[in-house]
């Protein structure tokens, strides 16, 4: 029996994996350094989701043209990650929690 040729993948899921990595990185950034940095990273991730919808250019590398369009799940996961980062930064600011490094510097008298 002849094996039929495989069809090339029509949609890329790479953006979703990158968004999950940036979500975990942003939570750590907000906890250890500053919630403002987590909020800025959330805005960057939202911008990435918008760029994924408009073009097939990778937002983090403007010279890399993706061979396939990003999947809807990938775009949705990117937007959800950006909103979660913004929400976490806002909640941290409202609850008046500070970063671990801020607590340490205050403890040392800086």
Walk me through this protein's architecture.
The chain is mostly helical and 110 residues long. It has one domain. It is 65% helix and 4% strand. The protein has helices spanning 14-32, 35-54, 72-94, 100-108; strands spanning 11-12, 69-70. It is elongated and about 75 Å long. It starts with 10 loop residues before the first strand and ends with a helix.
Largest sheet: 2 strands, parallel
Strand order of the largest sheet: 1-2
Specify Rg, calculated over alpha carbons: 19 Å
- Fraction of residues in β-strands: under 5%
Total domains: 1
Helix and strand content put the structural class at mainly alpha
Secondary structure tally: strands: 2
Shape: elongated
Measure the end-to-end span.
Answer: 75 Å
Percent helix among the residues? 55-70%
Which labels suit this protein?
2 strands; elongated; mainly alpha; two-stranded parallel ribbon; 4 helices
Write the layout of secondary structure elements.
Elements: E1 11-12, H1 14-32, H2 35-54, E2 69-70, H3 72-94, H4 100-108
Parallel strand pairs: 1-2
Helix pairs in contact: 1-2, 1-3, 2-3
């Amino acid at each position: 029996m002849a094996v039929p040729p495989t069809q090339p993948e029509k949609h890329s899921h790479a953006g979703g994996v990158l968004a999950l990595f940036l979500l975990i990185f942003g939570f750590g950034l907000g906890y250890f350094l500053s919630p403002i940095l987590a909020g800025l990273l959330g805005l960057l991730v939202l911008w990435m989701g918008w760029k994924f919808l408009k073009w097939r250019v990778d937002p983090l590398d403007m010279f890399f043209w993706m061979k396939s369009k990003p999947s809807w799940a990938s775009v949705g996961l990117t937007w959800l990650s950006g909103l979660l980062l913004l929400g976490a930064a806002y909640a941290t600011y409202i609850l008046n929690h500070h970063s671990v490094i801020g607590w340490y510097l205050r403890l040392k008298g800086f």
